[in-house]
Design brief:
Elements lengths: L13 H17 L4 H7 L3 E6 L7 H10 L2 E4 L5 H4 L9 H12 L3 E9 L5 H4 L3 H18 L6 E6 L14 H6 L2 H13 L4 E6 L7 H16 L5 E4 L2 E2 L9 H9 L4 E9 L3 H17 L3 E6 L25 H9 L22 E11 L2 E10 L7 E6 L5 E6 L2 E5 L2 E5 L11 E9 L8 E2 L3 E2 L1
Parallel strand pairs: 1-2, 1-9, 2-3, 3-4, 4-5, 5-6, 6-8, 7-8, 8-9
Antiparallel strand pairs: 10-11, 11-16, 12-15, 12-17, 12-18, 13-16, 14-15
Helix pairs in contact: 7-9, 11-12, 12-13
Length: 451
């Protein structure tokens, strides 16, 4: 694909956005008490980090699609993934996440534009003049590709040292460009996509300490001088050695008082049972108490794929079962989920027939692509299923297999051909080939209905 905008603007994607909104509404109507819908009731989002290589796993996508209203690519938008060699951009994995999020009506957080880690080796070898050019070109290339499609960007990530000094971290950008690189990155980002929220993101800044004070001083300075910054992200990785600080809410509030939104961007809390649940409750309650805390993102869907999996830090265990921490978060958000709700992976069957439909792009070329929709039965066997696929107005389907379509405008209603009978938890799929006709947007897949 081109390194410029994906052939899309907000106007050009109006049909896709409308279809995604209908999909999101269908999810909310089916399950009003999920993390995403409960957070929406509080005027916030509840998101998760997503890895593209797990989107083919049925329980992963079912849990993602049911529970969350925002996604952050875990690694797929970082510099080494998107510009491995200078001037050559690769967006395939990141596109897969963005396309999936759009098909489910989810927002996307962009992570991250400028960071000292996960840099390709060529970046560190540049002199100051070339590095400045490369930094701005990277921001423009990445943001330009997704212009109008990203809710907020982590523009600069982890630029301050740990410890008591509050000093800047050594990095190619700091060492060669000096303190001004952060301001320059934000100004470049604003010009690249004026509609996106621009965030500074860091860890160990959750309470009032030397590091958070240094970030606070920078944000205060930026606001006083008109440097474009809209939000500050708090990674909030907690465990017994680094617990939720007693002044967590007060710290979020003091940043909000500077006139920026605050977001909890990478939340995970090691532990289990009631103690872990209580810590998650503290975090959610702190966010809800700060009017400019716009949302929370847990750093992963399931413990088994967490970067700290040994500490079981997330809301769903390795079998996608809801943990006490999940129920505590839902309760703190004002929800009242029933553990017997159909659609929860692993719940005992209650006689309700259900299924889920998840979309992936399986092949891509300049003029077209292949899509696949995976149908997964719920906790009871089913004998048939139905779902819809809504294409952007420009696109057209040239062939479809393993399903029987009925077309009405740009909406296909798909039923099984030979593959309607599924055991509880079993999956099947149908595929189709699409002519892009100038649009690379993802189709929107509707709610699956079982009988």
């Amino acid at each position: 694909m081109s390194m410029t905008v994906r052939g899309l603007t907000r106007a050009a994607t109006a049909g896709l956005v409308a279809a995604a909104a209908l999909t999101a509404a269908a999810h909310s109507a089916e399950a009003a008490d999920t993390l995403g819908s409960a957070a929406a009731g509080q005027g916030r989002y509840f998101g998760t980090a997503v890895a593209a290589n797990h989107l083919g796993e049925a329980d992963y996508t079912a849990t993602l699609d049911r529970e969350f209203s925002s996604v952050t690519p875990e690694n797929e938008m970082k510099w080494d993934a998107t510009e491995p060699s200078r001037g050559t951009f690769t967006f395939g994995s990141a596109d897969r996440i963005v396309d999936h999020a759009q098909s489910q009506g989810m927002d996307v957080r962009g992570h991250t534009l400028v960071w000292h880690s996960q840099l390709p080796s060529w970046v560190g070898s540049l002199g100051a003049s070339d590095l400045r050019i490369a930094m701005n070109a990277h921001i423009n290339g990445l943001m330009g590709h997704y212009k109008g499609e990203i809710h907020s960007w982590d523009v600069v990530n982890e630029a301050f040292q740990d410890g008591g000094s509050g000093a800047r971290r050594s990095s190619p950008f700091q060492d060669k460009l000096g303190n001004g690189f952060i301001e320059e990155a934000f100004r470049t980002a604003r010009a690249a996509d004026p509609a996106a929220k621009l965030c500074y993101n860091d860890y160990n800044t959750d309470g009032v300490n030397a590091k958070s004070n240094a970030v606070y001083d920078m944000v205060e300075d930026f606001k006083s001088r008109g440097v474009p910054i809209d939000c500050v992200g708090f990674q909030s990785h907690f465990n017994s050695n680094s617990p939720v600080p007693s002044d967590y809410r007060q710290n979020l509030q003091r940043f909000a008082d500077l006139g920026v939104d605050v977001q909890i961007t990478e939340l995970d809390i090691e532990g289990s049972g009631s103690a872990q649940a209580a810590d998650y409750t503290k975090v959610v309650e702190a966010c809800l108490a700060v009017s400019r805390c716009t949302g929370m993102t847990v750093w992963g869907v399931t413990d088994k794929y967490s970067w700290r999996s040994g500490g079981t830090p997330l809301l769903f265990d390795g079998n996608y079962q809801e943990k006490p921490a999940h129920d505590a978060v839902l309760s703190a958000l004002g929800g009242s989920g029933d553990p017997g709700d159909p659609g929860d992976p692993g719940d005992p069957g209650d006689g309700t027939l259900s299924c889920t439909a998840t979309y992936t792009r399986t092949a891509d070329w300049s003029s077209g692509y292949n899509g696949q929709v995976t149908i997964t039965a719920g906790d009871e066997p089913i004998s048939s299923w139905t779902t819809t696929v809504t294409l952007p107005a420009q696109q057209s389907v040239s062939s479809l297999w393993n399903g029987t379509p009925t077309r009405s405008g740009n909406v296909m209603t798909v039923r099984p051909s030979w593959n309607g009978t599924l055991a509880a938890g079993a999956s099947t799929s149908f595929g189709f080939t699409v002519a892009k006709n100038g649009s690379d947007a993802a189709p929107a897949v509707g709610t699956c209905t079982a009988s």
